[in-house]
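General statements about sequence and structure are easier to judge against a single worked case. In the encoding step, the backbone of a single protein was reduced to a row of integers, each denoting a local shape. The record that follows shows the chain in one-letter code together with its fold in token form.
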Amino acid sequence: MTLTYLDWVIIVIYLTGCMVAGIWMRRFVRGMEDFAVAGREMDVNLGIASLAATELGLVTIMYTAQLGFEKGFAGATIGVIMALAMYVVGRTGFVIQPLRAAGVLTIPELFEKRFGIKVRWLAGLFVVLGGVLNMGIFLRLGGEFLVYATGLPIGYLEWVMTALLGLVLVYTALGGMLSVLVTDYLQFLVMGLGIVVTSVLVMANLGWTGIVDGLSQSWAAPQNGAAATGLKMSAHPFNPLHSSSFGWGYILWQLVFQTAVVTTWQTTISRVLSSKDEHTAKRIYRRTAFYLVGRFGLPGLWGAAAFVYFAKQGALPEGLDSLTAMPAYLSTILPMGLIGIVVAAMLAAEMSTDSGYLLTWATVIANDLVEPCVKKPLSPAGKLLLTRTLVLGIGVFLLFYGLWYQLPGNAWDYLAVTGNIYLASVFTLLVGGLYWPRANAYGAYAALILGAIGPLTFLVVNAVVSKSHQIAPEVAGASSFGLAFLGMFLGSWLTSDSDKVAASSVAL
């Protein structure tokens, strides 16, 4: 598939519109609060668009499609669990009320009020480590989609990655959250159109019955069919609890993990902090929850369709794998003229996620790592300049990380485990600080350190050992939660009441 003149016009118009809108918002940035949380004036509709756009990135589309290719419709289970967790939090107001009442910019800043400034700094360190490593593969996965979907030579991958990053860095560094919100809204509209168009084309190509029957036949085929066809569904495509799919252990880990995501993932929580008030934040959560089902469902459908398509061909073409199969399949069904809309939509998905994440991690570094260490408080202008500089610095790191790091396995597993570097421990600190009076700084230290052991071990070991000896993601993930809770309990319980009082600060 090659891009036509019309396709290029659509893409250029979209990119120009995003750049102009993002840069234009710079004039409204008067200080750090405007830059980091949009002056806390975000309404419901803008919040829904921004949160949905940020969490439905091109990397999301790629790994959900990979899950669909490998596990069929069972792969969408992760999205259902996340949607349920977000709706429950939005309905109950869990963590939203104390975050809004505290008037903080980040979650680590909240911990200073309960556990002291040193805990804030250490929590900020793990938040940044997990967040930046998590984001490290975004550019490569986004570049791979565009290369395989458009038929561009593979050598253009690095150039595509660099161009995407450069565009996002410009308006994010200038306008901060204000630019992110405005561009997210535009990207949400374009992305929605592209996803609908792509889904219609997939259904027109294979049909619902064709996809379901293709998955069923592949699953039911004898194992020696893999040798004959080169492609066989090895996981149950409709039952996520089946041992060949996710299984009970994985699902239970995801129930805890997704609850931690919607309550402590800084890019998600930043929308809570940017909202007009607590009521608005809760409504954003409840309404966005329904979009998350589509987040996993529709790209998962494309991945399942790609499996059926290539299974009919006998095997995956050389050079493709479960991650790149979906964009390669789309390249065969996208008609001339419409590919521009789809590419623009996928660019929208990539840019909305990158901008939100760059701003989030830069804000955490400035607010929770640098500021607590300087003797003289930074001026508002100085803190703003520092955060903008950090946005650019993180961007440069991500560019080089994306070039050399090779995924040892499934993209979703990598993202979930890197997120777990801080999700388990920060979630533990949040729950302990809010609901357990005995929780203290010693328990917080133990939770932060122990919670990171499982995910970091996973990354190191699985990068150097053979596939047969690798650590299962659910083992690394579940162990991080278990160790974090154990650390908080023992660290707080074994210290004296006087130590607890001395180590803790003001109650939330």
Notes: The two ends are 57 Å apart (CA to CA).
